[in-house]
């Protein structure tokens, strides 16, 4: 979420470690999180945790490799500059396209998920809308904020983040008290588990995506590797802890067989939150969970579309005037909103495709750049990720395997639960 970055930048005196960690955690925690229990239902709890540890490790290391490269450049160098200078124009273009693709498809995923959750909330208030219209309301409302200014996005996301922390702990805290360990460790339903991990892997990768913020952190802290490393480690650990709580809360309350129904209904955010609401003791806590889900997806939408907005303005050379911003807003918001109207329930499919493109810029490219940079500066005493070329190979392999899993799952060659 670039906006948190800007929020942090404006406060000169607040270059705390926690600020950087929150930027990373804030970007990572988003729509991916809502897909985890649904796509993890097949392998269930223990395997989900094992997978998340592995994905966390690889995505942490790829972020650190990106930092390693970034530290050979002046603070303020963009991702685009890093790829151009290390890997050349071909990879620069591939990288840029994959970033733009992820931002666009995530914007669509958020409209789909946002529409679904807004609809779920409105139903509770007795208002019935087609989901595509709810998606439109969600997108237009938030697009307007991005259109006004970056500052407006900053202010509103800061408020949203505060609200998310409070509602997450109230709602999930209560779900954690009610969990049933039998559900977690002795799941019902069919006896095959492990094979379902393959199709779930891409969703794990998306939920640990934050890499666009690494250059922003370098710009923010300057060449201070130890603080940036701590911020990345802490930020990804916070995200990991939130995901574990979320998996415990969902899988400890909804039986494995219950997910078959959620998946049959498309597995969108509103369906999952609806199923959780069904098992929660009080209406008040149910509202907290719904508010949390609304805020989580809305703040991610603002972060991602602001990034896309700035990227497109730069690419097409649109200026900051009212008409320039209107042009940028049009190319930013119209394609994902139209998709949201045509296919209101593509949430999970979109997250899967985001993963496919993210394997390039959040795993493979950072590893390749670090490899290159070590050849260019063999004597450098700047920060180097430990583990040598082996670690680089592991990250590249992780990216390739995850991308392959997505393609195989799309071709219906992998077992998918439900
Ligand atoms: N991690 C974000 C998505 C994301 C991926 C890659 C980079 C930035 C953001 C989410 O789960 O919603």
Structure commentary:
- Belongs to the amino acid/polyamine transporter 2 family. Mtr/TnaB/TyrP permease subfamily.
- It comes from Shewanella eurypsychrophilus.
- The longest helix has 36 residues, at 89-124.
- Helix 1 (2-10) packs parallel to helix 11 (213-221), helix 5 (79-87) packs across helix 17 (347-376) and helix 6 (89-124) packs across helix 16.
- 52% of the residues are buried.
- This protein is mainly alpha-helical.
- The model is unreliable at 7-14 (pLDDT under 50).
- The two termini are 33 Å apart.
- It is built from 18 helices and no strands.
- The structure holds phenylalanine.
- Phenylalanine (PHE) binds next to helix 2, helix 3, helix 6, helix 10 and helix 17.
Note the topology.
Layout: H1 2-10, H2 17-28, H3 31-40, H4 44-70, H5 79-87, H6 89-124, H7 131-148, H8 150-177, H9 181-185, H10 197-207, H11 213-221, H12 225-251, H13 256-264, H14 269-279, H15 283-316, H16 322-342, H17 347-376, H18 388-410
Helix pairs in contact: 1-2, 1-8, 1-11, 2-12, 3-10, 4-10, 4-12, 4-17, 4-18, 5-6, 5-17, 6-7, 6-14, 6-15, 6-16, 6-17, 7-8, 7-15, 7-16, 8-12, 8-15, 10-17, 10-18, 11-12, 14-15, 15-16, 17-18
This protein binds phenylalanine (PHE).
């Amino acid at each position: 979420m670039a906006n948190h970055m800007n929020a942090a930048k404006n406060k000169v005196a607040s270059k705390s470690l926690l600020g950087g960690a929150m930027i990373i955690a804030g970007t990572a925690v988003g729509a991916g999180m809502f897909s985890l229990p649904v796509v993890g239902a097949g392998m269930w709890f223990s395997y989900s945790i094992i997978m998340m540890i592995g994905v966390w490790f690889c995505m942490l290391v790829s972020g650190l490799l990106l930092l390693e490269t970034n530290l050979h450049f002046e603070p303020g160098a963009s991702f685009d500059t890093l790829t151009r200078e290390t890997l050349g124009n071909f990879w620069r273009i591939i990288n840029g396209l994959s970033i733009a693709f992820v931002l666009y498809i995530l914007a669509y995923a958020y409209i789909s998920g946002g529409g679904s959750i807004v609809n779920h909330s409105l139903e509770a208030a007795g208002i019935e809308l087609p989901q595509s219209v709810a998606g439109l309301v969600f997108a237009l409302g938030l697009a307007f904020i991005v259109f006004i200014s970056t500052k407006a996005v900053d202010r509103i996301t800061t408020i949203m983040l505060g609200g998310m922390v409070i509602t997450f702990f109230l709602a999930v805290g209560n779900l954690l008290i009610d969990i049933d360990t039998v559900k977690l460790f002795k799941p019902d339903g069919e006896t095959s588990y492990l094979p379902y991990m393959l199709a779930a892997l891409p969703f794990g990768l998306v939920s640990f995506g934050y890499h666009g913020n690494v250059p922003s952190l370098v710009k923010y802290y300057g060449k201070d590797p130890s603080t940036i490393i701590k911020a990345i480690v802490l930020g990804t650990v916070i995200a990991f802890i939130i995901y574990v709580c979320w998996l415990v809360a969902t899988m400890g309350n909804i039986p494995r067989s219950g997910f078959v129904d959620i998946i049959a209904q498309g597995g969108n955010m509103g369906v999952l939150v609806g199923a959780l609401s069904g098992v929660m003791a009080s209406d008040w806590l149910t509202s907290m969970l719904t508010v949390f889900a609304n805020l989580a997806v809305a703040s991610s939408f603002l972060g991602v579309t602001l990034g896309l907005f700035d990227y497109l303005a730069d690419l097409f050379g649109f200026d900051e005037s009212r008409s320039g911003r209107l042009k940028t807003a049009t190319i930013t918001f119209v394609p994902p909103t139209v998709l949201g109207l045509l296919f209101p329930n593509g949430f999970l499919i979109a997250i899967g495709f985001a993963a496919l493109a993210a394997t390039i810029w959040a795993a493979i490219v950072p590893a390749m750049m670090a490899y290159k940079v070590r050849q260019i500066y063999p004597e450098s005493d700047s920060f180097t990720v430990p583990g040598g070329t082996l670690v680089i190979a592991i990250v590249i392999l992780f990216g390739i395997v995850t991308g392959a899993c997505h393609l195989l799952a799309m071709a219906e060659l992998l077992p998918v639960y439900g």
